[in-house]
Structures are given as C-alpha cells and as structure tokens.
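Please complete every field before forwarding. Incomplete forms are returned to the sender.

SECTION A: IDENTIFIERS
Entry label: holo-268
Bound molecule: fe (ii) ion
Molecule representation: SMILES string

SECTION B: INPUTS
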Amino acid sequence: MNNPPTLSRAALDILEQGEPLEKVRLSFNYAKDWKDGKITTIGKEAPLLRPARPAKPQLLDPARMPRRSTGKSGRIALLHAIAHIELNAIDLAWDIILRFSTGETSDEMPKQFFDDWVNVAKDEAEHFKILNEHLNNLGAQYGDLPAHDGLWEAAIKSDDDILARLALVPMILEARGLDTTPKTVAKLLASGDTKTAEIMQQITDDEISHVEAGVRWFEHICKIRGLEPIPHFHGLLKSRFKGQLKPPFAYDLRAKAGMDIGYYDQVS
Ligand SMILES: [Fe+2]
Ligand SMILES: [Fe+2]
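SECTION C: PREDICTED COMPLEX
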C-alpha cells in the first residue's frame, strides 16, 4: 500500500474507517510512518462531522448504560464502556490533527504538536486493542452492549476552536479519568482481578501524558492569543461544558500532568 502523502489524509482515512480493528491497525501504521519520516507534510483536508463507526454498539442515553458492578457481567460492562471511550479517543486524536492542523496564521502548529497527537492516537489504539482482547478472553466483544455518545458530543461542541477542544477533551474528560481510574484499579485488585487492574493501570499511566499534552498546548496557544490560561479555561468550562468538575480530584496525577490546581479546584 502506498503511504498517504500527508498526515491530514492519514487522519481522514482513519476517521472514515468504521471497522474498529482496522482503525487500530491504520493508527499504528500511520503513527509509524510519521515517526519514521515517511509522512512529512501536514496538508489540509475537510474534517468529518462524525467519524465512521460499526453498526454496533447501539448508542443510548448515558442513564441507560449497563451497570459496571462486580462479577463477570459487570466486568464485561466496565471493559466495554472503557473500550468505547478508547475508540472515541482514537478518533478524537486524529480529529485534532485534521481539524486544527492550521488555523489563524499565528496559531500555525509546530511539528511537536503533531508528534504529540499522533502519539496519543497510537496509545488510544493500543488501549482499545488490549481491552478488546480482554473482552474476547471473557467471551464478549466490542459491540455486544450499548454505549453512549458523550465523548463525540463534546467533540462537536468544540469543533470550532482548538482551545475549547483541548479544554473539553484532555483537560476535562481525560483528566476526569485520572480522578476515577485509581479507585477502579483498587476495587479490581481487592476482588482479585489483577489482569483487568493491570490494563487499567497501564491506561492511566498513558493518560497522564495525554492530559499533559492538552495542558501544554492549551497554555501555548493562550500565550500566542494573549489570553490568561486559567481564567480562559473557566470561561470555556461555563460556556461549553454543561456539568461541573466533580471532586474528589487526583491531585497527584493531575500535578504529574502539569495541571495547575487553579484549573480545577478554585475557591470561588
Ligand atoms: Fe486511552
Ligand atoms: Fe487518552
């Protein structure tokens, strides 16, 4: 197969691919092509409103999600829900590359920006792959249960501004994962499920670097635009995110990701 001429075309190929394992395979291949210098130009392609997806899972309201309790069916529900998040996360990383590859001239992105999001996409592809394999080991597969569309709704709400996207996705939603996953890992270990606990721990370790990239680029672009990052983040939180940030926060992991406490634990 010929390499695509640009990174934007590679991103579009992946977003247009509805088959999850094919999305994963292409993500690994194109990430390697970028790393090896086989793809060197960014290019520009029109982004998609929604990425292609398989016919299943059915997308339902978040309130109608299967319970993630203990026991085998609860374990499958947990793994399935996280696998769905990871599949969305693959598309979100490529969508950032595709959608915000250029912008206002002053926002022109350096190569490091693309290195970071290609790496995030590769991690998310790895996460989906290991979760799907573990689901298969438990006799289930991605698509068996319903899922919800909250992540892609956040993507649509932030499709016009990279600062809104970075605020909503890595700095709010992925940072929320840092708050909640350690408790899930502890519960899994307490129930003796070391395999699932290991997978969740690996995901958390990787997610720290995704939040870190989000914070770093948010602050970089704020600087270019002459904005104060923390007040601007709070403005976006109010105007674009319907929920509140919910404590308890994983102060240690958020600090590892370089996130100032003022972003999430302000005394109002
Ligand atoms: Fe992930
Ligand atoms: Fe992530």
